[in-house]
Amino acid sequence: MNKNSWILYIGILVFGLVAPFIFPAFKVQLSILCVLIVLATTWNIQGGEMGYNTFGNILFYGLGMYLCASVQVGMFFPLAEWTESGGEKTFVHTPSQFFQGMAAGLVVAAVVPTIVAGLIGYAILGLRGHYFAICTLGLGVAAGEISGGIEIIGAGQGFTTPPFPNIGGLEARGEFFYFLSFGALVLTFIAVRAIYTTRFRLILNAIRDNEDKAEAMGIETMKYKITGWMISAFFCGLAGGIMGGLVGYIDSTDVAFDGREMGVFMVLMAILGGKGTLWGPIIGATLFHFFKEGFWTFFLGWQYVALGVLIVVIVIYFPEGLMGWLREKYPERFGEVIDEADRKAQVELK
Amino acid sequence: MDFLVFQYPMITIQACLDGLLLGILFALIAYGMALQWGVMNIINIAQGDLVILGGYIAYFMYLYGIHPAWGVIVSPIIMYFVGIAIYKLVINKVVDRDLFISILATFGISILFMQLMNFAFGADVVLANSGYGTTMLFDNNVVLPNSKIFSAFISVVFAICLVVYMKRSKLGRAIRATAQNARAAKILGVDTEKVYAATFGINAALCGVAGALISITFTIHPYMGLPYTIRSFMIVIVAGLGNLPGVAMSGMGLGIFEEFADYILGTEFRIGSVFLLLVLILVYRRFKLSRKREYLK
Predict the structure, then answer these.
(1) Residues B54, A19: Cα–Cα separation, whole Å
(2) Interface predicted TM-score (ipTM)
(3) What are the structural domains of chain B?
(4) Most C-beta atoms within 10 A of its C-beta, which of A27, A78, B52, B97?
């Protein structure tokens, strides 16, 4: 790591820490941006590095969301009565109960999806290519449909998460959730960056480029695929738990297992920025969030039309994303050395 | 969960017959899916949305006083041109690319269609009333709407017509040749671009027929497309590409499965059970193939 990148990291960190005080009106938006970056970055471990394009990370996201809220309520009050009454009307969390519940809930929200990913990983990750994509799509939708039929977590009418407690007239809800999601973002970034410097990343890339050859070279690909998926699941669950508290209301198909929105968003963000790079998903998520908020605000109702067109355009014309385009344009900035003579010889051959 | 199904055999018969008639419709959609998958090597997530769009065409004829059964003729003609348009705009750019690109691009089309249909036709669940009445069987214990029988009959007719067309006509031969080896077909003078466009158009037309029949027998809604895509995908992977009797059989099997899931688990789990079945089938095939160190290709 050279000096410039240190300056960049510290600059971003400082900006992240002061951002909610500079732009107090955008606290919720910034928190959502952090969650989106976490989701895009972890999708990239799967889709970009490993070549296993999944629509199913929404499963872990939604699972984390329900688990966090359920633990937070269930630790202190009967869960069934809470969901039946529609939440806050009958029971009120004291501040200490709220924070204890949130902490425990986030731990559960991160750990349980990881275990689930490990358990189903052996069965699901044996599928390849588009079968994997369709299978994970099916998993996400099935989870949404089934959770919409379970009474104890609110079934069709939804689940209201505990409202943020009022501590001495101080309204700190926005700040709390912003720093929570920013913390998750920093944690994810450090973890992913650390992973990307190890042999693990090379193995994932080998699986992406040619799984049969990787296996022939003596790599136990299944083990690494499951590990990669578990890492994704961990951060997706965490992000889901935070997002549940932030939105304040969980619906099975519209918020938690929202394959039509969040499930596609994470794929799109990673592709927009550039698959298989560290910064690609982060840039992609930021751009996408700006675009999305603009459309959701100014063209309300047409947002899905715009989203559909955006997906088609990105996929057809920019499959390599922004980072891929930059890499094509300035290869030397990415540490790729181009031999002039060799390049000329290639051109002549064509 | 009481096991009513086993105590009253009439319910079992009812579910089986309903499932069979429904399954024939699914098989028709799956045939279109198999056609484009085999010929162009793309998976069309917007398949179900094409079905729903076809259904709305029949529904609009019903609103304007024409009997919706005529939708079976009109809807495929319109949908053929819709299919050609989609091909020219999007699909021809993803044909020779990675399969995931086609999945994602058609996912985009699917979202686009959903929302446009929501604008154009509203978010209500609608059905076109055919006024065909019902047939009673077994001392009035089993009730079959005639519209279901009509739709199964029309599906079979269309499927047979298509099979004959594929076998006999020049275009059908070109489509089959392209499916076997696109490059060789090109060398022998087949305009593969045209074949692809026609294939996608025929697929859309099949979806149009199925949609018109669904609007008569069941209900349609702008957001109901994805389950149809998943069903047809499932039928195709169970039957295999280019195995028509297999498509028909597994379509009917899926129909019966759904009816029983509906009775046993309850209607709220119906779609969920379809998607779970997809996951289970894929996982089952994965384990079956991995015994020979193979995987699904």
Answers:
(1) 50
(2) 0.82
(3) 4-290 (1.10.3470)
(4) B52
